[in-house]
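User: I'm curious whether this sequence folds into something compact or stays loose and floppy. Could you predict its structure so I can see for myself?
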Amino acid sequence: MAVRLVQSMAVMGLGSALVGCAAVATKPDQQIEVAVPAPAPTGPKRCLLLTTNDSEAHFDGPKAVTATTGSVTLGSIARVAAYKQQLLQQRPGGVLLLEGGDVLQGRFMERADGDRAQAAKLAWQLYEAAGYDYGTLGNHEFDAGPQVVRHALKGLSKYRILTANLDADATSLDPREPGFPDGLYGKTAIVNCGGIRLGLFGLLTPTTRTISQIGDVRFFDDPINSPARAAVAQLRAQGAQLVVALSHLGLGEDIDLAKDVSGIDAIVGGHSHTPMPRAKVVQGTWITQAGSRFAWVGQLDLALAATGVGLDPLLSRWHMTAVDQQMPIDAKLEARVTHLRSHLIAEVVIGQRPVSWDLTQPRGDYGQKAARMAAQVVRKALPQLHKIAPVVGGLLNTGGFRSHTVYPPGPVTNLDVFAIHPFANRLLAVKLSGQGLIDTLEHGCAPGSDGHGQGLVLWGLTMGCDRGKPAQTYTYENGKPIAILQRGQRLVEATVGGRPIDKRQLYTIATLDYLAKGGSGYLPLKTGERLCLDGQPFGREPPCQSPKFNQVLEQAVREGWFDQPL
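Assistant: Here's the prediction. I'll summarize afterward.
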């Protein structure tokens, strides 16, 4: 069945050899290759890497919604699985399916019984059934802590997870612990693909320390370059002809990696959700990424150079293929997805949208669109907030809003609300000085990691940044900021209620517990007086009571608060 190629790279290959490939069992610092004879090549040896990233458990694909066409479901892991099998028939043994991280987050993690660990285990087992060969960890794998990752890893039998920059010894993810599947979690691997000795290693964004719940798991002191160089050196010493990094760093950091670490032939990226119709070549390293949520599958067709080491830049190629209705579907895997769906929270209509909700990107305006929604939610919670103190404004992180689509007028379901803000973040009030508020907004002027930066959703507050000026710097401990080292100079405008912020005045703002704990590096919020909506101090045991942001959003929808376009 012909598959429509929607976008293709300008550098195209000139042929294809059908050669053999064998999977390899590996341990964290050891690779065991199982040799499979390959037919005599008629051209350069080739290995085809199919890639996805940032599925966020959208196993039945992203939901593309427009005001004119309604709802159309695209993607799905069952189509990706069938596509791999189709290509394996054309190139037996010469195809690998890779994942760039962020699988264990999203709707399919929300079981009716609340068992997040079991949901994670079944998610990776679904990847295994779909034919995924290797993947790396993403920051969202740790949203519910390392124990969930540990439980999911113990459910694997074939799918291999690689992360070279985590120091897992004597932690929840120590692969030497009894019960871990032998060789399925480690730093590097070598696989014979298309007659090529292909070396693979994984990298996880170090920002996981401040944007997720990493627990006792540690990054190495130099969290990217040193472990990457060590992995490349190890793989080359073991005879790897090509080296590919599975990166959950984001496009900007992938570019830096290619500049700073030699010997990487290609980077299969993730984290920034970037659809790349063309590969970006930096100092000979091909950088690729395939969007998110199974909307695309990337195809990195690597041709080995005539020297036997490194890729041939003229014969290698990259393109993305839309995962749409023209792509075949694996019926058995689709049935498995349907079975998983039956264990999720039931979808019910909770209200109506009298007007459209436009939450599409570009990011330049996205913060304002999300702010209008957030303002309505906080307006709903104001009676409780005002019992604590008069709230002058509020702030959320843009990364908490995950749905970038247009919702036309019509019924709203509980799962629509969950898709917009899928995190268990609770509303809090924070009392802090004007200087503390300025320091908070100054941090919002700093550049964040691709796709998960420090961007703020504001209401009642305004800010303006000059990113050409010095950024705020911090003192760090174990990779987390513990004190401001030097205040930044990027914040050039900051107002509350239209007036400049008074450094000596005390302000009360609404925010989320995630930010109030210093998430995304917002240390200044952590220094304020943090109060739950029942008026009790945040952080004490037993935990005080505050509603989740998406719970308040759902209640606002039920009561018909959204009568204006977003």
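Summary: DSSP finds 13 helices and 34 strands in the chain. The CA atoms of residues 475 and 481 lie 6 Å apart.
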